[in-house]
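Exam review. A common question shows you a sequence with its structure tokens and asks you to describe the fold in words. Practice with the pair below. Do the first one on your own.
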Amino acid sequence: MMCDREFAIVVFGASGFTGQFVVREVARNCKSKFKWAVAGRSKDKLEKVLQETNSEIGYDIQDVGIILADVEDEESLNAMCSRANIILNCVGPYRFFGEPVVKAAVENSCHHLDVSGEPEFLEEMQFKYHEEAVKKGIHIIGTCGFDSIPADMGVIFAQENFPGELCQVESFLTMHSGPEGSAGHYGTYQSIIHGVASAREGNLGKLRAKLFPKPMPKFGPKLPRRWFISYSKMMEKWCIPFLGADPSVVRRSQRHSVEVRDKKPVQYGAYVAMPSLLAILLFLFFGLFFALLCQFKMGRNLLEKYPKFFSFGFFSHEGPTRKQMLGSSFSFQFQGTGYSECALKSGNLPAEPDGEIVTKVTGPEAGYVATPICLVQAALVVLEETLPNSGGVLTPAAAFAGTSLIDRLEEHGVKFSVIRCEVDSAM
């Protein structure tokens, strides 16, 4: 734990769409425990968010600090970070606005947690700031929201509950919505546009070659790669690959586990279970058109100007309504295979794994209910516990394996469960 500063937690970007929900979650969890503050460019907007928090949950806002800070003002970021133990950074897209905050956090020995789902930003921050963060004993932890705590900690949960060593895990995400449907906010939509646009440039591949010069060691048979459209017997649904940050985050976690903890690596594949084959075909048609527009400045401008039109109403500047959020939820199902303790002790592993585990992670609406829960509980672990690493730019599982994070999430509505675990008794 760090030395005490004026504020235990500062929510930066508190008046943004995601930030306002994070503020309410901090308020619910920090009553009489920690002094905290909100930060952003506009004092009026920050005061409005605090007033709305007071009206909604009855939280006394008198002791909540207000800090004026702007990503384009380095001095203001340094001043903010020097007053905080932890910055919860809600200002995205992170590829445009994230690095100045990370830089200020590292320079001022302040922990930094964010909810980015942008692999290029996350891995670039690791390449640039990991060693300095380790020296200063601070934790820079990305993807502390729906991207990617349920997936990353879900793999850890499966590993911890399997009697042996897992070598393969596949996850299948299902999104549920009520009669009001579901929706996303413009900020997420903008991140997707520029993430798709940058993929063509190949920068991420070049960065990974520098960041991870050594190949991952192999353990167990190679995880078969599914076709882009595949059918899962376990889910009884058609699936497509998960195109977000989860696969890259889990693989970074597994690399950390191998290099730092001397553990066996788990091969990982991430998929989304779709309602029907027709839904997949419609998604592919839209996706190809969307990706084509992302490649050109004029196309990106059109996408950003008319989010409702180009996302068929899913993304908007207004974001989801309260009814939509209350009616939505998510579930991850994990299917893992590995070698039992008996097989490991035999000294001669069979060609195929002799054990299987199926686990599940479920939670409320992903973007603006589950994400604040995950982010705030992760921050509380940093504040209240000794993490297994002395510091660095880390993934959630690298930072929080062996802590109480899963138990804390359970208490706040993100549930982890074992559906079945079977080991070949003949071994």
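Now try the second one, then compare your answer with the model answer below.
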Amino acid sequence: MSVHTSPLEQPGTGDAGGMNVYVSQTAMEMARRGVEVEVFTRATSSDQPPIAELAPGVLVRHIPAGPFEPLGRDELPAQLCAFTSGVLRAEAFHEPGYYDLIHSHYWLSGQVGWLARDRWGVPLVHTAHTLAKVKNAALADGDTPEPRTRVIGEEQVVAEADCLVANTAVEARELIELYDAEPHAVHAVPPGVDLARFTPGSQPRAREALGLPANALVLAFAGRIQPLKAPDVLLHAAAAILRKRPELRERLVVMIVGGPSGSGLDQPQALRELAVSLGVHGQTRFLPPQPGQALVDVYRAADVVAVPSYNESFGLVALEAQACGTPVVAAEVGGLPVAVPHGVSGLLVPNHEADEWADALCSIALRPERRAELSANAVLHAQRFSWRRTTDLLLDTYAQATSAFRRALELRSEVAV
């Protein structure tokens, strides 16, 4: 279940991001193992076919629910009844027992999965991806808190799911401490990275492909443009760098790759206006979300990739960049300390102060020997995370959830007798 975003969408804009990558990559890896996967997502256009093939063995079902247009996540709870009806109707065309297990992604999908689980008599595995209580505890300036509706919805899904999949041990602890999840029901399964696509390569060729000078000092951000992801921190850091090192003005290039999303849609030009006000508009290049090889070129072209988010359950961008051999400077929040081991493949910054970010970025970008060491370590670190490994752990979790669900059914039957 992936109600609010489809694995067919381009990550980096709208609500498409790391979750899309997670769903598509794990689904395709499962299909390669002989597991048939169907992804239920909301139809956002009348041109979308009812069923599309993502890959052999992976079908995407577009369920009509509300208008044929993208809706904000705050508008989607009103469409959950219609979406659930479409999901149940699709299952009704099959013999009972057609689906073996439901894996819901994000709390909206968990609400649908909870009802489908009870109707179909199969276990529900749920991955939150982000948690409202965690996000509200670390809001960016001017960002909008997650509503009480979401908090209650998450609490309900945590209470009802047969198994909860967390991206890291940190997230697992948050589920237990903030949402009263049963410890035995929580499994930490780290996401992966496409190690066949994201590989080290020629920095000069990548810069040529992007039209960047060979001698540039390149700092990059890739992700959705919204306060939570904090691309503004990189712009403030760039301004601080130029204040300290004005001779770098001719060489510095800041790449911001992504599209407006979430609360960032309210002021889609705010980041460009900030670059102007900080005096770094001449050094900043804004690119739309980049697919495939183009995104690989962004990572390879950069001296450092910045991940300054206020909260990340993991941070797939950090892994992708490291797999390409590019060191990462990341905020010391959420799962990022797992994705970026401090001083090994990059640096963690304990706050969002411009001067500290400027110093961290320069300590890598302006020191070739250190950058080379971190780059080599980054590749080795990223190789520990593959979608194959993630899928192995997910399938083990599915097996455990299924066994526990059957035992619970048997116990209830015995009590009834």
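Model answer, second protein: The longest strand covers residues 37-42. The radius of gyration is 22 Å. Full marks require stating both points clearly.
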